[in-house]
Amino acid sequence: MKNVSIFSKFRTFLIPLVALLCLCKIGHTFQRDRVVRFNNASSELLLNRHISIFKDASKKLPINSVKQQNFAGYPKDGIINLGATKDRVWLKFTVQNDTDDEDLYLLLQQATIDEAILFLEHSNGDVLIDTLGKYKPFEERAVYAPDYIFPINVKKASNATIYLGVSSNDQMQLPLYIGSKEVISTKMSTKNLLFGLYAGAVLIMMLYNLFIGLSTRNGSYIYYIVYIFTVGLTQAMFQGYAYMYLWPNSPWMASRSSIIIPFLSGLATIAFIKTFLHTKTNTPKLDKGINVIVICYFVGLFIGLFDVFQGAIVLQTMASLGIIYVMYVVNQIRKKGYRPAVFFLIAFTLFFSCVIAFVLRNFNLIPYNGFTAYILEIGSIVEISLLSFALADRINFYRKEKEASQAQALRISQENARIIREQNLLLETEVDKRTKDLKRTNESLNEAMYNLKQAQAHLVESEKLASLGMLTAGIAHEINNPINFVTGSIKPLSRDVDQLIEALKVVEEIAFKDIPEESKIAELESYKEDIDLAFLKEEIQLLLKGIQEGAFRTAEIVKSLRVFSRVDEDDLKLADINLGLESTLVILNSMFKDRINVKRHYDEIPYVECFPGKLNQVFLNLLTNAFHAIDEKFKGKQGGKITIKTYYKDDLVYISIKDNGVGIKEELKDKIFDPFFTTKDVGEGTGLGLAIVSQTVAKHHGSISLVTEEGKGCEFIIKIPTVQPNDNQLNNENVQSGEEFLSK
């Protein structure tokens, strides 16, 4: 990815061998008589020679143990570069002050270091301890600066030994300076000025592109502004200003900003590339590879939130692979003649050249100076400027393309006008022929319309048969329970009756015996105890009562079925709406079971002149829909509730059926009564249930309305007059409404 934060870490992959050689012990034993002499108070002194190094893999050794370790000399010139390591690295050197200025500053100009611990030991035995880093609030620093600055006091013509322990999850490159307070302050002021110019340039580019984006209403500018912001934020993080100004009291954010900010910058870069170069249109197959990179970025973020070091490696790897892949994608788009890709390639190449210079500086192949220290900032500003020009050029490109398309459209319209004139000459000769064709077509359409009406009629009958199937299943289930009880009681009842008949025979034998009455009575009592006559009588009564209740329940179900079906539905009848609702509930009882709570609020309402069977079908459809809505919401668990209410007002009977199911979306409310419209999956519904409900209510000169809220349920409210118009008028209207339904 074209991500500043990632390029700034790209050196991790290029210099591990150099870092390893810098840290390995190659026999440069530290000599105590080699000291760093500070003899010019007017300039800072770069510390690189006379420095020894020791790596603490545990990060837990106390300073007394560290002092006893063997330190190896750093063998290179230039900036100290230790590569990427999880260890705490200790630097040891002795400073002798040959100037008159005793208040000195030790500057570690690397803001990405996680922790820096300073132990300063004077020749007289005094020890100074100071700890800085991202794990401590910024306000605890003695010097308010983005880099690590340690005040040290070394008297004139004396020396002090310094132990500096550093640890980082990033590349450990250590520009280490010592100087007077004024010199170090001037150096930091220069850095603040240069970064202020950089931040100002970034802000100007953001405002400029924001103005252009608002003027042209081009979405690419929004992504580009976000990209510029993340680029600037990345540089602010690496220079220490993000921690200094944005989250000075958040060590957690400071320690993980090297993961989070590059992640955001990478996503912003990818979003800008996809919109600017239209990769999904220009290279649809290669665009999928960019999406894979995005997924890998999320993986790197997840890892980095728990292990910053490993997360940084993943992000750096993805950036390294991503930069090569994006260069390939951009080049493929350029080959297709897409002009913005040329600007993008130029801008990216220049920026990548700055990255190469940055890596060469890390290799100490080019000197570390004021220019190379800010090479990435310079490269990012140049890149941002060129991409802004590319966006502006694309506007001109679109304008020319629009003018060319308009000219092409004009030529096409002129050609079309010529063709129309020629075709008009042939049109008259074709009119008669087309008229005959239209007549034949009309005849075919009439036949197709007739077939369509027949098919629609079959569909309506299919919906009725589906309801009949559900009705049959419900009745079978309801009748099965009492019948099972009856059949289950017959066998024990038959056994008890046989035992009772046998008892009668025994009683008869005892009665005809030629023995005294007292003996007969005693023998009878003994036999009664043997057969437990009292229990036998009680069991027979219970079995007869159970059979009676089963037969009664079966009769009630048959009665409800007779009320529900109303075979006389072709004639207007006075019917009890409450009774029709109750019979429908009996039919659906096996469906509701115990997991749906049905609440009834029946008022005393007059009988309604209607087709009872058709109205019962309406109730069946609405209650079935309520069941499915509740089942979809509660997934077969308890919690469903259906409330049925009836009342009478202004010569109208109101029937309300309300559920707490999934409800219906607002945009679908006007479509639910249309024939063949359904929200169910394919194969689970015909879409005719509510259409039949609407037509049936309309046949009764009533109306039906819906009150619903998605996720909270539905309420259907039906209004039916108690008295219908005369038969002839009603039948004529029924025929017309049926034809209208089929015509839909």
Please tell me how large the radius of gyration is: 46 Å
**Average pLDDT, all residues:** 76
How would you sum up the major sheet? 7 strands, mixed
| Percent range of helical residues | 55-70%
Task: Describe the protein in words.
- With 744 residues, the protein is an alpha+beta fold.
- The protein contains 21 helices and 20 strands.
- The strands form five sheets. Strands 1, 3, 4, 6, 8, 9 and 11 form a seven-stranded mixed β-sheet that branches. The protein has a five-stranded mixed β-sheet with strand order 15-17-18-20-19, covered by helices on one side.
- The longest helix has 137 residues.
- The two termini are 57 Å apart.
- It catalyses: ATP + protein L-histidine = ADP + protein N-phospho-L-histidine.
- Its EC number is 2.7.13.3.
Features:
744 residues; alpha+beta; 7-stranded mixed sheet; 21 helices; disordered N terminus; disordered C terminus
Draw up the topology in text:
Layout: H1 4-8, H2 11-14, H3 16-23, E1 36-38, E2 45-46, E3 52-56, H4 63-67, E4 72-73, E5 80-84, E6 88-97, E7 103-108, E8 115-122, E9 127-133, E10 148-153, E11 159-167, E12 171-174, E13 176-180, H5 181-216, H6 219-238, H7 241-245, H8 251-277, H9 279-282, H10 284-306, H11 308-335, H12 339-362, H13 370-373, H14 375-511, H15 517-531, H16 533-565, E14 573-575, H17 577-587, H18 589-592, E15 596-602, E16 608-610, H19 612-634, E17 640-649, E18 652-659, H20 689-699, E19 703-709, E20 713-721, H21 727-743
Parallel strand pairs: 1-6, 15-17
Antiparallel strand pairs: 2-13, 3-4, 3-6, 5-12, 6-11, 7-10, 7-13, 8-9, 8-11, 14-16, 17-18, 18-20, 19-20
Helix pairs in contact: 5-6, 5-14, 6-8, 6-14, 8-10, 8-11, 10-11, 11-12, 12-14, 14-15, 14-16, 16-17, 17-19, 19-20, 20-21
